[in-house]
Write a structure and sequence with these properties.
It contains one helix and ten strands; from the N terminus they run H-E-E-E-E-E-E-E-E-E-E. By secondary structure, it is mainly beta. The protein starts with a helix and ends with a strand. The longest helix is centred in the N-terminal third of the chain and has 18 residues. Strand 5 and strand 6 form a beta hairpin.
């Protein structure tokens, strides 16, 4: 019953996002462990982009849908929608180090943004993730996230860089709660806060 409720809520969020003119930026929202082989992941994360130089914060939603291809590799489609911008992409993540209490993974992907103001862009993104488990149901993670973008019909490029601490708490065998803070490390980036749920389906 709980799985059905979470799936319906996630679907409602995506439908709402599709009919409202809004826009977005990517989030990490996972530890260094990849999706279990043969399992699906459905996740939704309300997200706020913090204001810059006195500007107002912008609320939106980010989501992921993924599948575990091997014990060490998964693929995920991702989307984020905020006022004035929509973000769509896909990535692959490889679990580099599988330790008893320390894990490291690396992800590489591509994305595109649809901006209400006409400044559409596309690019590649990558992240390096470390996670550890200080308690049975809790994982703490930290990541460095980079995105290299270029504007459509222009030779102008820009880079977004975030340092991202976060946590993942297991509510049940198939449902996790996640929260993270993305600290912007350059002028092209906006700091953000994201919280939400990830549901795993066999």
């Amino acid at each position: 019953m709980l799985k059905k409720i979470v799936v319906l809520l996630a679907a409602a969020v995506f439908l709402f996002a599709a009919v409202v003119k809004v826009s977005a930026q990517d989030v990490l929202m996972n530890s260094a462990e990849t999706i279990n082989q043969g399992h699906f992941k459905l996740a939704s994360f309300p997200t706020v982009l913090l204001g810059k130089t006195g500007g107002d914060p912008v609320w939106g939603v980010a989501g992921r849908f993924g599948y575990g291809l091997t014990p060490r590799f998964d693929i995920e489609a991702k989307a984020a929608i905020f006022k004035g911008l929509r973000y769509f992409g896909a990535e692959g993540e490889y679990w580099l180090v599988q330790g008893q209490n320390a894990n490291v993974s690396v992800a590489l992907g591509a994305h595109m943004t649809d901006s209400q103001g006409g400044a559409d862009s596309s690019g590649i993104d990558t992240s390096l993730l470390f996670s550890t488990s200080p308690a049975k149901l809790l994982e703490l993670y930290g990541g460095l996230k980079l995105a290299f973008d270029s504007f459509k019909n222009s030779d102008q490029n820009f880079t977004r860089v975030h340092l991202v601490p976060g946590l993942e708490y297991r509510l049940s065998p198939d449902l996790d709660f996640l929260a993270e803070f993305g600290l912007a490390l350059n002028d092209n980036s906006r700091s953000y806060i994201s919280v939400g749920l990830a549901l795993y389906l066999r």
